[in-house]
Amino acid sequence: DKADHALVVFLYATGCRVSEVATTSLNRTDPNWIDLENGTLTIAEAKYHSVGTVPIDVTSLRVLRWYVREVRPRFRNAVVLPHLFISKVGRPYSANVLTQKLGLLLGRFGFAGKTAHSLRHFYVTDLLRRGVQPHVVQALARHRDARTTLGVYAHATPDDLRAAVNRRVGG
Questions:
Q1: What is this structure's pTM?
Q2: Which of 39, 43, 112, 157 is the most buried if burial means most Cβ atoms within 10 Å?
Q3: Using alpha carbons only, what angle is made at residue 30 by residues 26 and 32, rounded to the nearest 5 degrees?
Q4: How far apart are CA 69 and CA 109, in angstroms?
Q5: What pLDDT does residue 153 have?
Q6: Rounded Cα gap, residues 125 and 119, in angstroms
Q7: 3-state secondary structure of 19
Q8: Which residues of the chain have pLDDT under 50?
Q9: Residue 155: its pLDDT value, please?
Q10: Residue 52: what pLDDT?
């Protein structure tokens, strides 16, 4: 489903919490809104007051623009609802419904047992693995404390461990 694809792309591209996804709007006067022209997501209302602006990569932005232009208008109430993601029957998603929906989607995509929050972990881990400085990752994830970014969200995989050992011995 094209809308589901856009939803997963959005989560992975922004590292948003499910509650932030549910409240993301196309209306710039709302606290959490996406600017598709400039490629940014502004979060002004979030858990623990973790506010900030997250740039969206070009590839993900292309998918999201296409979703808003081609897919979303086919849903009931799309013209009157400001929410970025709405159900096909024209209702905004609650965080609980999104959590359930994403659990099913991730299972369908081969990530059984993973949750919507797993995409946030993937986002942070991927940034760190690509060499992004921890303080930048902390800002993108909107964590108040770097220990959260490094201690809870950074996951070393067996491949990470092998690569570290190989670099140490020059292999």
A1: 0.84
A2: 43
A3: 75
A4: 25
A5: 64
A6: 10
A7: helix
A8: none
A9: 66
A10: 87
In which residue are the tokens 């996406």 written? 34
The Cα–Cα gap between 105 and 155 comes to 22
- The interaxial angle of helices 95-108 and 116-129, nearest 10 deg, is 70
d(CA 60, CA 114) in angstroms, rounded, equals 21
Distance CA 59, CA 79 (A): 25
Which pair of tokens denotes residue 163?
A: 């690569």
The dihedral built from the CA positions of residue 55, 58, 63 and 68, taken in this order, carries a sign that is positive
* pLDDT in the model for residue 28: 95
40: three-class secondary structure by DSSP: strand
Contact 112, 106 (CB under 8 A): yes
Other C-beta atoms within 10 Å of 94: how many? Answer: 12
What residues contact residue 161 under an 8 Å CB cut-off, 6+ apart? none
- C-alpha separations of 14 from 39, 52, 97, 105, 168 in Å: 11, 11, 19, 18, 33
d(C-alpha 60, C-alpha 156), whole Å: 25
